[in-house]
Amino acid sequence: MPARARRTAVAIAVAVIAFLSLAPPASAHGFTSVAYVHVTEGEGDGDGDSGGRRLRTTLELEYDLYVISTADYEHDDALFRAGNAAFDAGDTKAQAAALDAHARSAVGYVTRRFSVTAGGRACTPARAGGFTMTRRQGVPYAVLPLDWDCSGRAGEPVLRSGLFPDAETYVTGTKTIVTYHLDGRSGSAALDAAHPSVSLAQPWYDQFGEFFRLGAEHLLTGIDHILFLLALIAGSRRLREIVLAATSFTLAHSVTFMLAALGLVDVPARVVEPVIALSIAVVAGWYLWRLWRRGGEATELETSGGGHFALDRAGWTRLAVVFCFGLVHGLGFAGALGIDKAFSWTLLWSLLVFNVGIEAVQLTIIAAVFPLLALLRRRAPVAGRWATGAISAGVTVMGLMWFMQRVFMF
Predict the structure, then answer these.
(1) Which of 243, 252, 264, 245 is nearest to 341 (CA)?
(2) Phi, psi (deg, nearest 5) at residue 121
(3) For residue 381, what is the enclosing H or E element?
């Protein structure tokens, strides 16, 4: 190999290793949480005019995180002991009873971080019933109903959420998924630290814009999905191959994502997360195997390019494998948002836009990376093979490490 080509390959390999070193050790999504809020007209709202409006918000909060955060912030050690014991025992009645017995702390924690305003004035919250329990992705969630008195406050309601902030250090990047049905209008929104509030009169394109952003951010911050895409790019021989592979991946994860949102599929994270990690290693390792078996011919098509989409047998096989793994990644996307039960059609449309955001980032990464690799392969074929081999090797190792860590973690 010429010295210049060798230096180019080494430089790319170093860049890839530096990129991989930024990944968290076990879970690529990090420790995060999703809160859910459903908004309806409150009881006794009457005709719904702004002069006497009441709203009902039903919050669903991850139970163990809720107990720990509340106990820490409110200095309620008794809640921590009772809540932890009920959580360890898996006793849902005891879990709800622990929160009920410490309702002042539990409700106070929420109302200091979650608010409803109208016309720029705060609405008054009141507990609207006892705590109950539900489950999302196999995780216990506490359900808290609150009524908000917005009497005498003109203007459309605005929700603001600062639940489980990063500053508490228990989780990072908490998302709050809001759905509402008011005055015959339905809508949805995704709140986070960067976008903490939403007007319940927001136009539909703002709703979809939020979920597009959320999908784009999720892929950019989900290092495992980026590595999977990087493995696809490194192992693709032609532009059409990587575009078809990325599209197949998107279609597949959209299918399972929507099935999960409809409540038709529910696979525990202890299965999904290790398989996602394994899929990264398999796709990257496949290209390494081709390099070992075929050497310089690994980047060439086996036929002249006839048939549908001009793919050879290896290309079709790879496409099928990517589609199957995409189904699993879709469950990972759903799990990241805690989606495992049916929502309104409005939210389902928003989730489709979430997938569009994911696809937009995928295509952007492909447009940025693949032409560089294609140019390197054309100008310096040996350096191109070394570079893509180094990328695939690094991704394979990282995928196997994550697989082992996730197997033991769950």
Answers:
(1) 264
(2) -115, 140
(3) helix 381-409
Torsions phi, psi for 115 (to 5 deg): -140, 160
Instruction: Report the predicted TM-score, pTM, of the whole model to 2 decimal places.
Output: 0.65
Which residues does residue 125 pair with via DSSP β-bridges, in sequence order? Answer: 148
Quick: pLDDT tens for 319-328. 888 888 888 8
DSSP 338: T
Smallest CA-to-CA distance from 272 within 215, 222, 327 is with 327
Q: Is residue 234 left, alpha or beta, with left meaning phi > 0 and alpha meaning psi from -120 to 50?
A: alpha
Structure tokens at 13: 């390999």
Does position 388 have pLDDT exceeding 80, yes or no? yes
Strand, coil or helix: 247? helix
Kindly report each contact of residues 341-344 with a partner whose C-beta sits within 8 Å and lies 24 or more positions away, as own/partner: 341/136, 341/263, 342/261, 342/262, 342/263, 343/179, 343/188, 343/261, 344/179, 344/181, 344/186, 344/188
Which residues have CB under 8 Å from 16's CB, separation 6+?
390, 391, 394, 395
Helix (H) or strand (E) holding 39: strand 34-41
